[in-house]
Fold:
Amino acid sequence: MSFALHVPARIRPAFSGFAPLSVPNYRRFAGSNVLAMSATWMQRIAQDWLVLQLTHSVTAVGITTAAQFAPSILFGLHGGVVVDRFPRRRLLMVTQSLVGLVSVLLAVVALTGTATVWLVWAAAFAIGCVTVVDNPGRQVFVNELVGRRHLKNALNLNAAVFQLGAFMGPAVAGGLIGWVGGGWAFAINAAACCVTVLMLSRLDASQLQPVPRPQRRPHALREGLAFVLRTPAIRYSILMLAFLSVFTLTMPVLLAAFATQVFHLGASGYGLFNSVGALGAVAGALASTRLTHLRLRIVVLCGTGWAAALALAAFMPSVPTFCAALIVTGVGSQYFFQSGNPLVQLSTLPEVRGRVISVWVLVVLGGQGIGGPIMGGIVDALGARGGMLVAGGVPAVAGIVLSVLLARRGSLKLSVSTTRPRIAITER
Structure:
C-alpha cells in the first residue's frame, strides 16, 4: 500500500523556523498567546496558593490539580469530536470567554476574602471541562492559520511560547502574590482571555484555510480511534509518548525530591530546577525549528534520547551539573514533541485531525495522572536518584525495543520533508 499527501505550494528550503510569523493571522495569534500562556501559568500558581492558604493541606492542592485534569481524562476524546465538527475560531472564542468568566469569579472571591476551597475546586473542574475543547482546538487551528507549508515551524513556535509562559508566569505570580495577593493573578488571566477573544475576532477570515467538516454520524469517535490504530506514524508515535508521559513527564515529583532530599535546597531549589528545565525547553523548541525532515525513527530516537538524558541526570553530583542535565532534558523533550506532534498532524486527514490530536492530548494528560502516584511510590521506595533513574530508564529501554522492532520489521518507511513539495508515507 502506498499513498502520498501533496502540499499545494512549493516549500522553501530550510532555516525558515520563524517563517510562520510572516503570516499576519499567525503573528496576531502568537502575540496573544505569549500573554495568554503567561497568564494561564500565573492563574495556576495563584489557584494552588489560594487552596494552600484556605486549607494548609498539600493534599488539597493535589485535589485541585486532579479536578482540573480529570475532565481531559474523562471527556478528552469527545473534545476532539467537537473540534472536528464546529468552526475552530468560534470554538476558541467561546472557550476563552468561558475561562475569562471563571477567572473573574475567582478574582472577586479572592480579593473580597470570600473564597472557599469547594468553590476553587469547582472552578478548576469547570476550566478543565473547557480545556477539553480548547486544547485540541488551539493546536489544530494553527493549520488553518498557516496551512501545511508552515505547519511544523508554527507548532514549534507555539511550543516555545508555551514554555516561555511556563518560565515567566510562575515567576511573575510569585512576586504578585507576595506584593498584592493572588487575586490579581486571576484578574490578569481574565484580561488575557479578553485580549485573546478580541484577537480572534480581528483575524482576516479571507486568509484562513478552513478544513472540510465531517458529517454528523454516530460513530465519529470510533472513526478517529480507528484512524490512529491503522496509521503507523501515529500509532508508534503515541506508543512512545505513552511511556514518556507515565514516567518522564512526572518531573515535579522528581524535582521536589531532589530539592529536598538530595541537595537540601527547599522551595528555592524546587523553583530553580523548574525554571532551568523550562529554559532548556524554550531553547529546544526554538532549536527544533531547524528539523527539515520528520521521520518516525527520528521521533523514537528523540524520545529515547530525552529519557536517557533524564536517567543520566540521576547521577549528577552537584547542583550545577544537575542543572546542566536538566537543560539537556528540556531540550530533548522539545525535540521529541516537535518531531512527534507535527508528524502526527501531517499524517492525519484534515477531517479527523481534531479527534487524532485529542488522543495525543489524552495520552499526555492521562499518562501524567497515572504516573504521578506511581513515581511518588517509587521515589519513596528507592529515593530521589533511584526514582529519576527509573523515570528515564524505562522509556529509554522501551524506545530501544521499539527501534529494534521497527528495524526488524523493515516494511515501514515514513518520511515527511519540510523542504520538498511532497510528503510520502509508504507501507509495503
Q: What stands out?
A: The chain has two domains: 18-209, 220-428. The first strand starts at residue 2 and ends at 6. Residues 18-209 form a domain with the Growth Hormone; Chain: A; fold (CATH 1.20.1250.20). Residues 280 and 328 are 6 Å apart (CA to CA).
